[in-house]
Fold this protein.
Amino acid sequence: MTTACERILTVSNLKTYFRTPDGIVRAVDDVSFHLNRGEVLALVGESGCGKSVTAHSIMGLVKAPPAKLEGSIVFDCRELIGLSSSEYRKIRGMQISMVFQEPMSSFDPLYTVGEQLMEVAQAHMPWGEEEAKERIIETLRLVHIPEPDKRYSEYPHQMSGGMLQRIMIAMALITSPKIIIADEPTTALDVTIQAQVLNLMQDIQSEYDGSIIFITHDLGTVAEIADRVHVMYAGKIVEKASVVELFDNPLHPYTAGLLASRVRREYKGQDLPYIEGYVPRADQFPEGCRFNPRCLRATAKCRELQPPDLEPAPGHTVACWLYEGGDGR
């Protein structure tokens, strides 16, 4: 049996709550998952379901207090929750790096790209300025930035969104991290650039044998890059499976709705399928299964009790009462 320490990351019963004037916001509510070494794990769900807050919690970007952070985050056999800010800084950006979703707003317009990459290198690596510059340029070349020597001295506004996203990936790679968390890295890009970024992420994963948590709401990108998929809804993970199993046999009604909502050629001239309603506000989650107000198969039990993780098939878990004692079909 694989132990938690043999996995690069194990998140157990993670709760990230925020106190607001409107009440307690349970942004991440009792989430558990693991990331194997050399694996790409996708976190999928609509905006507001808790994906990014999960990532920020792992990165130590959620401050407690004022937030309330409970549970366990074990990275490479070390518990992260409870570390001091100085201890976390030795991990964040060096051993765990993050690629944010808005490349246009992630860079300071007053500094060159090279200056901003240099800041990361000098904060974490024992390099002199000349060596750091050489390694940065080499990393820019690795992520397919044309004329990296020239781009090093340019400002963010001189580059396209796709190029800035690749530079964001380069920034995450400078320290050769063990985990890269990519938070919707293709959202703001056009289709052709999205494909380039996905190919780049695959190349990085295969060359470095690193681990990636890929956060997205786009199931098309999941099919291209992920080994396993976890589907999140309203602060909880509702389904876990391999990418092949999830696409071939989605179990949770929410997962099935997401897959059905993808635009396809055969839908031309027809009303597009969609999931009615909206993700509930994190301070107004319903009783029972949080998807029950939008679920066409909800029962009285679904409206009263939160379902546990059930395992209708080996390695495929689903939090849905429809699968209690059977396959739900």
About this structure: The chain has a mean pLDDT of 89. The longest helix spans residues 191-208.
